[in-house]
Structure formats: structure tokens, C-alpha cells
Amino acid sequence: MIRVLIADDSAFMRKVLSDLFNSQSDFQVVGTAVNGQEAIEKVKKFQPDVLTLDVIMPIMDGLNALAVIMEQCPLPVIMISSATQKGTNETIRALALGAVDFVSKAGGAISKIDTIKDEILAKCRMAAKAHARKNFSASKPLVYKPKLPSEEPTTRRIEVKRRTGYVPAQRPTLTRPSAEPVKKIIPGTGKRLVVIGTSTGGPQALQAVITRLPSNLPCGVVVVQHMPAGFTKSLAERLNSISSIAVKEAENDEIIRAGQVYIAPGDYHLRVVPAGGGERKILLSQEARVGNLRPTVNYMYESAAQFGRDVVSVIMTGMGSDGCDGMKKIKATGGYSIAQDEDSCVVYGMPKAVVDAGLAD
Hints:
Elements: E1 2-7, H1 11-22, E2 27-33, H2 36-46, E3 50-54, H3 62-72, E4 77-82, H4 85-97, E5 101-105, H5 117-128, H6 132-135, H7 154-164, E6 193-198, H8 202-210, E7 220-225, H9 231-242, E8 246-249, E9 260-263, E10 269-276, E11 279-285, H10 297-304, E12 311-315, H11 324-332, E13 336-339, H12 350-356
Parallel strand pairs: 1-2, 1-3, 3-4, 4-5, 6-7, 6-12, 7-9, 8-9, 12-13
Antiparallel strand pairs: 10-11
Helix pairs in contact: 2-3, 3-4, 4-8, 4-9, 10-11
């Protein structure tokens, strides 16, 4: 039985979600909360398996509540967000703070809940199996560039304290990697290409990796993150704002440059192809979805395999096995592969498939 706590300031949404979960034999609603402060209290009281958390709520919003929850009593959280641009940006921040996944209200309207109810159930079932309790502890703070100012203005912090007594935490400081880095010489021509694939839990994993890359990295990095259209742009902008290396959403026919990270736009497959003169470029397409996914990691990996020993492929947290078939082709042409370890994954699915197939170096 999956025990769920629902946090939403809308009585209608609380009722709809409660009815939805209670209609399922494997869910039990243990409580509801009308704001972030109450959500924190009830998480501690009921210790649910999964929390659904609205972003915009009175007294304490979902982001501030999430920051406290992931520090004091971490558990799998599914954000229920608006499809507006503001909602998209807030969702990306929530994923960076440790939320497992999100569901976007269709058109931003709660009246269209029927169109997303299956997605809510599927993601909550997945979240109940996630490693959020172990992965998102206070001992593993997020990684930020110290020189950047806090995203929470001082006036905002004062106002929140005045109303709730809660002061949003300052940005965490740089933390050491959870595992010792592997020091190994990887053969190649010197014109490297790094390709990264990830899904559930990816935004936080990408943040941990990309914020450690130097601005003068002597190769380009191409990323496929399973995420809807619109959200990948916000993800790229956020990572760019907190990283030394430049990060952007990939564009069609774009030449891959050293010292640049390119994130595949949602709803587009991404391939890497030769561009002449030893260069490589990105091709985007809306060819048929593969396993209901677009973009897919396999699509990117398979295209990158043609560059042989110059390719370093990385597979990170995510459900399923997307990337495994493409990794086989990369390995067959002499490329190098890295899989995220189980202990640091939110969902040890995609890396597990690669490890079980004997493909991880």
C-alpha cells in the first residue's frame, strides 16, 4: 500500500486527488495539507511514502516547503505544477531541490485533471520505489557557484519570516562527490564528445555534474533528459546560471563547440552527425516516439557511436532501459562508458540495464 499525503491550497484539487488515489487498491491517502508549513508538519506526523506538492500555496509555498522537507525528513515528492512559464521555472527549481518528478496541470487548469490522472498515478507509483530518502539527505547538499547571489531576495526572506517564522535556507556550499573519481587515461584522438543520458532524478544529477565542469572544458557535452517541451529550456537556463561552463538548449544544425553543454529540447530527437572539417553538429527531428519517448537516449547514443574512441558516454538515474542499446553500439566502436552507481541514483533503472549488460567501464 502506497501512503500518500496531498498538499494543495485548492479544496477542489485536494478532493479530486483524494478521490483519484482512494479509487486505487494500492493507494491510501493519509492526510491533506493546505500550505507548505502544514505539509512539513504532516510529513513528520504521518511519514507518508509519497507527497504530492503544489508549487503555489499561501503562508509557505511548495519550493520553501520542499527545501525543508528534503533537509529534515526527505521522501519522494511529486510536484503538481502549472504549465505556465513561471510554473515551468519553479518546477525546474523543485527538481534541483530533490523532487523526484512533476506533473504539469494541463493548460495550467485544474479542471482538466482527467487528462493527467493516469500520469499522476504512474509517477506516484514510481516515486514510491525511488531512493529519495537515501539520496536527498542533508549530508549531500546541492552544488552551486558560490559567487552567485542567492535566488531568494533579502526582502523575500524577511517577509517569509514575518509571516511564518521560517527563514529559507541559504544556498548550500560545494560538497565532495559521493564516490572517488576514477583516474584513468581514455584513448582517443583528442577531439572528445561527451554524451549524457538521464531521466527521473536527472535534473539534480545533471546539476551535480555540470556545475563541476570548467568553462574551458576541451570538448562539447550533449545531454538527453527525458522532459516535456518547454521544461528543457528552463533546465538549460538554470544550469547555465549556476555553472562555470556554458549551458544551452540545443538547436538544429548547431555546431558542437568545446566548453559548451547542449541539452536536447523536449519533444525532439537529437542526433550528432559529422559537419565537415572535423566538426560535429546537432540534428533535431520529430520522428516517431520510441517507447512513448522523444527525445530518447538511444537515438543520441546510436548516432554518436560513429565517432568511435572519441566518445565518452554517461548514463545516469532514470527508470527503464533507454540508452542500453545505444551504449552497445558505442562500446562496439571503441567508445568509453560510465554508469551512475546505484547508491546515488533516484531510480536505478537505466544505469542498471547498462551495468547488467556488462557495458559500463
